[in-house]
Amino acid sequence: MADALASAVRIIGGQGATARLLGVAQPSVWRWIARAKPLPAEHVLAVEAATGISRHDLRPDLYPREAPAAGATDLEPAR
């Protein structure tokens, strides 16, 4: 999670650019990274859109990977 956020900040162009994108102060971005704080939920989708880093990688506690539907592996291919 922290590595994903640090990567996102680099892609966006640094802490200042990330802060401007999200409408927060640069020290907030620093705190998220330096103190391994999770990216606030209200910013996850904007960071995902700006960087291509998935919401799951940014906040796996909020956006778990979807498991295959029950029985999905038992389906036969369409004919």
TrEMBL record:
Pfam families: YdaS_toxin. InterPro entries: Lambda_DNA-bd_dom_sf, YdaS_toxin-like. Transmembrane segments: none annotated. It comes from the Bacteria. Residues 59-79 are annotated as: Disordered. GO terms for molecular function: DNA binding. This is Cytoplasmic chaperone TorD. It comes from Sphingomonas ginsenosidimutans. The lineage of its organism: Bacteria, Pseudomonadati, Pseudomonadota, Alphaproteobacteria, Sphingomonadales.
